[in-house]
Amino acid sequence: MATNRPRDRASAQQLLDKIRKQNGYVGADKFREGIPDPIFRREVEEAFMLQHQLIGPSIIRLAKNLYTSKAHFVIELLRNADDNSYGEAIASGNAPYVSFHVYPERVVMECNEDGFNEDNLKAICATGRSSKPASGQPSTREKGIGFKSVFTVAWKAHIQSGGLSFSFQHQSKDSGLGMISPSWEVPDEGLDPRITRTTLHLHKNGAVETKKDVRAAIKDQFSDIPETILLFMKNLKRIHVAYYSENGQQISSENYTIDSTKTPNHAVLTKSSTAHDGSVTKQTKLFHMTTYQATNLTKIDSKEHAEEEEKPCTYSEPQIVLAFPLSETLLPLVEAQKVFAFLPVRPVGFNFIIHADFVIDENREDIIQDNLFNHSLLDGIVEAFVQAVLQFCLHETLRYQWMRYLPGRNEKSWSPLWLSLICKIDARLGHEAVLYSRNSCDLRGITELVRLPSSFVDRDGEPLFDEGDSKIIISQKYKKEDLKILRQYGLEYVGMGSVLEWLQNDLRSCFSSRMKSPNTNEGWHTQVANFLNSILSRGSFTKYPEMMKKIDLIPLQDGSWVSASSGPIYFAKHGDVEVPSDINLRVVSRSVTNQERLAFFSSLGVQRAPVKLVRSQILGKYTNIDSTSILSVQASKRHLNFLYRSEHLKDPSEPDYSNLKIFDHDGHWGSAFEVNLYIANDEAYGPRVLTRRTAPGSNPGAGAPGCGLFFVNNEYFKDPIPCSQKHELTWSDWFYEKLAVSRYLDFSVDEGELSYDVAYLQKHRPDKFLGALCIWYRDSQAIPSDLAEHLRETEVLVRDNRFALLKDAYFPTEELERTVERFVGPDVFFPWLQLDTETTGPTSQFPWMELMKELKVGTPKTELDFALDMLKYVLDALQNQSLSPSMSKLVDLYHHIQSKYLESGDRSEAAEKIRYKKCIYTPHAERGCDWAYSSDCVWRSQHNMKTKFPLERLYGSLLPSGVTRGSSLAILFKTILKIPDCTWETYVDELKSLRNSGCEDSDLIMDIYEALRRIRSKSITFPNEAFEDNNLIYLPTGSGKDWHKVSECVWSGAVTLRTGVSLDKAYQQLEDLFVWFLDVRLVTLSMAIEELKEAGSRAQVSERDVIESIWAVNSLLITERNPPNPKELVELNIFPVKHPNGSVTCASAATDFFVPDRESLRTAFSRKVKFLSFKLEEVVRLQPFLEWTQMNQRYVSNHASSITSFDGKEAILITNVNRQIRNRAHALLRIAVHFESPRAGSSSAVERLYEVLKDSEIYETEGIICKAILSQDGHSHEVKVNRPSVCVDGDESSLKIYLPRNKDEQDYAFTNKLGRWLFAWIMGHLPTQAPRGLSWSGVKATRTVLLAPLRMLPTALEDFGIVAIDVANRDEVEQFESLLTEPPQEDSPEDYDGLTTNGDGSTTDIVGTASFPTTEASENTSIIVASGNWEIQANSTGPLIAAPGQQVDLATRPLPSTPFQQPQLIEPNSQNVDLMEKIIELRRSRALLDLEEANLMQACIMRGRPKEISE
């Protein structure tokens, strides 16, 4: 509290005058009044000027710096206010505050400080002095400016405090004495004496714009007051700023407060803003505050500080403040914060506020990085941070989250100053206990603790293994992201060596081991397995995998635990089959089913047991009966299960199963190879069902006593073994097929008697005897002759529970029963074999007819014999009955016998005629009635009907052979009863009836369609709507819908579609009915393409469907001139691709594959690359499809390259002049120069090449090696091929050429291959001779030079446009030229072969009329070759052959059949020849080229390219 304050106004004014005098200041008015003499006054003024020069440097410097500095006058006022004393305010319970009232022309500041005293007044009237204690904060007071900064915005500052009321005045051009020389002002009597008021009168002089700028700067300075400024104030607790309009009305206000009284080290900042409309907004921020008094700092190096400014200040103990933002829940608020030097400078990357007396640059934009004083502050900041961390460690939540304030060392590029701070924090924290360990309240250092990886912590947050000392592991309450921050400051993961030690300790524990405990959950085992497997995956460069393999981690089936290094260990299963554990193999415990755990064992070295080893061990166990006597049924089952499931992997050398023994139903050992063993199942004809007791009764088979058999123990079939996918045998079938277990009762004869069990069956179970016999026959497929004879004489059960000898009984076929029913009736006994319903019917699996045929029983010898047998039983039945109900059947039977008799030629008495009545008797009435009205009948129909009775058909079998339309029955029904034949209405009604009844008799329906076709052929019309509206087209599709509308059907012709109901295959002969009459649609290309799209878009693409669709599209493309763009289609999986392993999958065009247009290449590379899965002949047929989809660019012939070499075998020099190139050296040299060969790059190189060509030698040999090369999917594949080839071996000084020794191969190689290989050598790069890209023209020119007569070489070169050279032709022209009599054959589109003669050896003459520049450039037709009335033409759309009134596309259609006329020889130009070659190749690839056509076109291709004909 001030003690030397002025007591009253007089003492205050005296004090003011005293200070004015001390500063040597006299007011202007008094100066004039005291010295009226102007001369003397001038002398005094000069003396004052000299005095001011002596004391004026600080004043002058202050005045100069005032307007060039960046001083923030508001902050300077706040600093001054904070430095004041507030003893009286605090004593009265008021918080220290400062307020600013900002008016357009003035700023009024008020604060409740204790008031000015003499020391304060002296200090404010001086430069570089302060009455406050040295604070060590010089850097924010702009180089001694302090309070004087107000003169940047004001020309006058009026201060009123207590009895004092004075002002300072200063303009921009003044000397500065006015800033330190106070003038008395009349005080405001209404001011509270406890308030100090400072009124700043803003500048009035200057331009209007300048004044506006000053006002704006003032507002900006107040707006820039950060809400955090109170954090760094020692005294002030509130700051108030109010803004006023011109008329003095308050516009808005802002209020800043700080409350640090509620919680130690916590400060609550509140900023309230009141807008002009009265609305209030409020912001609150919470900080944890830590202050630290820095000591022993480096002195500030600043030349701007005068000695008088530095003497009272010390910079050795500034205060450092760190503010850590907190959320409302007292959690770290991680946000980038700024660095402060009282004012905010800028954010540098820290999540907490740093406030210190940093030296900043002149623009206040950054801390000076290389300033020593700033560096000396860093240690204090570090200590403050550590102090804050220790405070955090005492907080309930912040103790586990304080590290979020740590700066990330690797997150950004730090400047040297701040990187130094981070390093110091790191080093300092390394010596402090700031972290809690697991299960402990003690703090430990960062480097003293370790972190557990998340994979080593279970779902409860505990370590997978007990670590023993929990004090070395950091607390689990720290979050993962926070631990990640600490890792940058020395927190490491636990070492793998420690983990393995913990693991071993767990395994050694007998009772508390989590690994061995059966109660440990599978989730824990999964996590442990994954964790340990991750260690193994680190490979051999660490020691831990080997250490782990020595730990007893693997549980065996016998209960022991062993290590991976202890010897071979096998999994308990091979695939899904259990490996027996009793066969002398160490097997992992079957209780281990966790897949991750099993994968970990696999990484340790546990293997699947080899099938051969396991099977050998199992079979070996049965070689000694003693070793298997202790086996249980379950052990035996496991043995057999493995043998069964691995049957397909059986080694050919493995012994059979004859030594295997199995348990019977009584638990005894036995071998099915030695005694009959059966499987006890519930099959109707199984041995157990047939031989067990039956209940008493009157029916056959009742009361059977039972028969004892040996059955396989039922334990083998409990929990049945699933069927192996590797072979077709089921578990039971495997017993039958491999272990010799009997499936059925064995029918055999022993000493003239049936076997015991079969005899029991015939006697006690006659109802099952025949079925058992048939089943046994189906299984054995043969009946011995003695058994067959015995069975024929055996009594068997027939219908009506009667017995008859087997040889006298009949098998009840549908046809025979229908005949008996027709002629005998249901009430008459007939010896039909009594069969189970399970053994008959259309789906019966019993081979009855084969059995009857084998036994020669059950079927009639002839139809007449059967008829006589029927007559016998009918007569027996009618002996004591009324004849009327059966007489008609008897008469019919006689008619039947008569007809059969007549057919056989053995006639009997004539049959009675059928008498007619008013109603018509229908012998085959399907509706169950014997009589029908004439309206219900028709006479003639091609088939049986449901809606009508077709009498001709029903009675047809009754009429004698040869009866015609004029027969008595026909006359009766047709003429007398006027029953009509079938009409189309009848057939339509019949189809409706068949559809409604669900009829599936396709033959019957076909007959109706045939009948309709015949009616249509008679030009009888009927409405097609009947078929559309009533779904009258029958075709089963498998989808449940068999009857279809016309609109749902298509007629595919040669093309088959899956979509739509295709009728052509089912009704091939009815095309005129369905297509031309019922308007069934024909298949189109768009339909086929859509079907192919559908097939290629499926999740599971069917190869068969795709291929069928491809052929459909291909067939339709042939006739389609403008097919759609296939781009979208080829992106689908529509190409069947055959892989090197033989598998075929459907792929899109994105898959790399070749089209096999050369069989030799396909065969050679089939096991190396992928091919389109079509044969060569299919590829030829698929030419339209391949061209449309641009797959012709994938012809393997276009992608295969070849390499030839000479293996050094014997080679003989060829002397034949026709096999030399030295007399053609000059022509070849011209080719080399023309195509800019690197071998002819200079005149000397040209001469050297000429000499090499002239000295070249050609040999014949058998040592040429030819290899073909293909590249696919980035891999190159090479195979050796056996075909005629050439090897060119040369360098800059010599050239040797090797041809095959075989004459035919040599001729072919010389005429077809040498040109290309020689041109490749000519174009090779020196000195490596690597060939460049070959010109097709160069290849053809080289071939022509090799094959042309020597005298025609200039003409040949001129035809190819080869340039002349300056080198003289020194070739020795041979006197004899060997003329080639046979043209070379064409090898491929890349091999130009020359002229081909006619098939008979003659040459076809052709008349030429016009040249053809280019196909693409010509829209008008140009005639290439003309012959009589025929022309081969070419236009923009392709080559055509034109005849009178017609044109045919040469690329797709055969030529017309009219033969060509006799043409005459011409010389077509080279462009026409090129086109003709392409036409020949195109038509040959599509199998359209015949001999006559080939002779016509190939005659245009001359060996020497004749001179071009001009138009």
Please give the count of helices. 48
| SSE-based structural type | alpha+beta
Oligomeric state as shown: single chain
**What gap, in angstroms, lies between the N and C termini?**
125 Å
Mean of residue pLDDT values: 77
- Report strand %: 5-15%
What overall geometry do the principal axes of the alpha carbons give? Answer: elongated
Sequence stretches where pLDDT stays below 50 over 5 or more residues: 134-144, 302-315, 879-885, 906-919, 925-930, 958-966, 1325-1332, 1373-1431, 1434-1448, 1451-1471, 1499-1511
How would you concisely characterize the structure shown here?
By secondary structure, the chain is of the alpha+beta class. It contains 48 helices and 53 strands.
Structure description:
- This protein is of the alpha+beta class and 1511 residues long.
- It is 33% helix and 15% strand.
- It contains 48 helices and 53 strands.
- The chain has a 14-stranded mixed beta sheet. It has a four-stranded mixed beta sheet with strand order 42-43-47-46. Strands 50-51-52-53 form a four-stranded antiparallel beta sheet.
- A hairpin with a 5-residue loop joins strand 23 and strand 24.
- Helix 42 packs antiparallel against helix 43.
- The longest helix has 21 residues.
- The C terminus is likely disordered.
Fold blueprint:
Blueprint: H1 9-22, H2 28-34, H3 38-55, H4 57-66, H5 73-83, H6 87-91, E1 97-102, E2 106-111, H7 118-124, E3 154-161, E4 164-169, E5 183-184, E6 196-202, H8 208-223, E7 238-244, E8 250-259, E9 266-274, E10 280-293, H9 307-310, E11 319-326, E12 338-341, E13 343-347, E14 353-355, H10 372-392, H11 416-429, E15 433-436, E16 443-445, E17 450-451, H12 480-487, E18 492-493, H13 496-508, H14 522-536, H15 544-549, E19 554-555, E20 561-562, E21 573-574, E22 577-578, H16 595-604, H17 611-621, H18 625-628, H19 633-645, E23 662-663, E24 669-670, H20 687-691, H21 731-738, E25 749-750, E26 753-754, H22 756-764, H23 766-780, H24 785-792, E27 795-798, E28 802-805, H25 814-823, H26 848-855, H27 863-878, H28 884-904, E29 920-921, E30 931-932, E31 937-938, E32 949-950, H29 951-956, H30 968-976, H31 984-996, H32 1002-1017, H33 1025-1030, E33 1033-1034, E34 1043-1044, E35 1049-1051, E36 1061-1062, H34 1071-1077, E37 1081-1082, H35 1085-1096, H36 1103-1117, H37 1127-1130, E38 1135-1138, E39 1144-1147, H38 1159-1165, E40 1171-1172, H39 1176-1181, H40 1183-1188, ...
Parallel strand pairs: 1-7, 12-14, 17-18, 31-32, 35-36, 35-37, 43-47
Antiparallel strand pairs: 1-2, 2-6, 3-4, 3-6, 4-5, 7-8, 8-9, 9-10, 10-11, 11-14, 12-13, 15-16, 19-20, 21-22, 23-24, 25-26, 27-28, 29-30, 33-34, 38-39, 38-40, 41-44, 42-43, 44-45, 46-47, 48-49, 50-51, 51-52, 52-53
Helix pairs in contact: 10-11, 14-16, 27-28, 31-32, 35-36, 42-43, 44-45
